Amino acid sequence: MRARARAVAGAGARAHAGSGATASARAAAGFLAGGALALALAALPVAQALAADPTAPATPVRTVTDTYHGIAVSDPYRWMEDSKSPEWQAWVKAQAAHAEAVLARIPGRDAMRRRLLELADAGEFMGGVEQGGGRLFYLKSEPGRGNRRLFMRESDVGPEQLLLDPDALPGIAAPDQGHHAIDFHSPSPDGKLVAVGISAGGSEASVLRVYDIAAGRFLPVAIDRAGLNGDIHWRPDNRSFFYNRLPAPGADGKGELYNKSAVYLHELGREPARDPAVIGWEVNPARRFDVPDLPYVQTAAGSRWALALVLHGDAREVSVYVAPLADVKGPDTPWRRLIGPDDAVSRVALAGDAVFALSHRDASRSKLLRWDLKRPTAAATVVMPQGRAVLRDVVAAKDAAYVRAIDGGISRVWRVPLAGGRVTSVALPFEGTVRDMMVTPARDGLMLRLEGWTQSPVIYRIDAKGKVTDTGLQPPIAIDMSGIEAERVMVKSHDGVEVPLSILSRRGAKRDGSHPTIVTGYGAYGISLEPRFGTVRMGWLEKDGVYAICHVRGGGEFGAEWHDGGRVLTGTKQNTISDFIACAEYLIAQGWTAPARLAGTGGSAGGITIGGAINQRPELFAAAESAVGVSDMLRMELTPNGAPNVAEFGTVANAEHFKVMYAISPYHRVKDGANYPAVIVTTGANDPRVDAWLPGKFAARLQAATASGKPVLLRVDFDAGHGMGSTKAQWTAQEADVWSFFLWQMGEPGFQPPK
User: Fold this and answer.
1) pLDDT digit string (tens) for 262-306?
2) CATH class entry, domain 6-119+479-745
3) What angle do the packed helices 574-589 and 606-616 form, to 10 degrees?
4) Where exactly are the structural domains of the chain?
5) 330, 277 contact by CB (below 8 A)
6) Running DSSP on this structure, what letter comes out for residue 540?
């Protein structure tokens, strides 16, 4: 699933979409081995259904039939949806134990785990750079450390200071609670305080705290159910901030994960229970909010205005309200709607008395608009019309608004002077992906991180004259990529549409069909899979492997039309799957690989992609992975994260949506007696985005249906969620398990278990 905050574009992508084995998971597996496993299964109170994979634990079948728009749909594993029940707990632990036992027999797995962790430790990786009072705040992944830690510098060139280590937080992190993670951080305008969100076990259930840098301690405030996706905005007084908070659990003890939230104003020293709500669910009867609407209040240095940005679930179109910052105090705040869903705006930046926004209304690749807040009745003006490049993001510094775009898979940046004048392009040091743009309205210019498939990331500062300087904040990564080449080709899909396919391989690799190959895809929310540097990927390429990324429809590589070309709401979601299949066929036809040497992967919303591909063309793949994947599309909307995703995945209440959903729902399209490839399904027990029972049902259905004799495994990490917040050891262990599983199924020497 995609991160709900629009500033975190691409979070739902596959890079860290799963989680790995941990001590708690291994302990569970160890307990359920042998006699304990037999007792756990014996305790299941119904007759067992023998799996077509005879080595997998048997699974109870209790078929429930629902009728949707006159069509009867059977669900044999509805009972799994009660994930708190002892029956589910016993079953999922038995599955985890079985998966661990099978994976442990692969001879090359342990060496693969060591190698991937070594590659992950090849250097320091910086991210999440924020600026306050001239100081820089950032998270850093370091060799030998599993979690990212929070650091600070007084300036670009100042000495580094460690602020917070999530593994060593007195009174917060404890070994018996599993690992902790810093989910977000937001410094005060003067840089003396920093708000942070800390959660346990990959749950993303952040508790908002405030750290006093001079005192070296947390202030006595802890706000739970807060900071959803970390969009915290301080007021100029450095003593108060706006934050999003979910409602308290009801009498039944059930709470919300994403829905019915509101924005509150917190002043340091005040009890959070007394914080006034300023906009959101049931805050003001005169302003109606729907269940999945997610509001944030944004501020900007030097601006007398506040913006309330409202996400309508996971729809790409947002609403924006404006009010004088001094008047944003409570439910009666005089908000004026500036932008509605019909304006088709996806990104917004506040700069003084102006609002800049990207809109795809009558412009599939988006245009840049500007509103003058001093003229409340004036219409927006077009600052940058639609062009060849797809406009993806806009931020505002003291001197200009900066726009990021994709042009044929390469990032471009434009500078738009706030005082008016010519829009100019920024010359970047090399062609790659601008992963972040970091600005502060109190300073000219911007910082950005630039990287490519084979280019190590560099953090540059660009001044108001366009001069580019390497900050030195991101040290070079000590991985030699000179022997790897990346190419981008266009593949003709089933309907003649050409789909981009990025292929990474050893330089000069022969096209003899021999290479172990992974093809991956996503295809949702308009997210683009842009070039990303990854040291761990070398662990696959070192095996003479090929790694391919299929930029399927449903993503955003060519703008709104590309998104709508693979979407339930437009009746075109099958294109996402067909594009992926076409890319797999291309890799075979061009001699990169053969079906016996090809594996497909998809994570989160990409679970629809890979699930559809193995259901429709199982013979194309030797193996497949569905990572924390959406699989039961008819029941997804009943999960805590279901309502926001209706905008992307549709609703069974709509007959046209249902028709498309049912036709491509991975769980419902599994065919009894089909010769499925070997499949590994991964999940995290604490996943707040795709409940673990969704991958569980898919795995059980495949185990019961497959006639190939190949294994179907459900790998579970009991100290992880959707992948956000997983430690380095966790996600490299999962990748090693999946890749070892693939190489086993591809017949690779050194990965064949003893008979």
Assistant:
1) 999 999 999 999 999 999 999 999 999 999 999 999 999 999 999
2) alpha beta
3) 60
4) 6-119+479-745, 125-224
5) yes
6) H
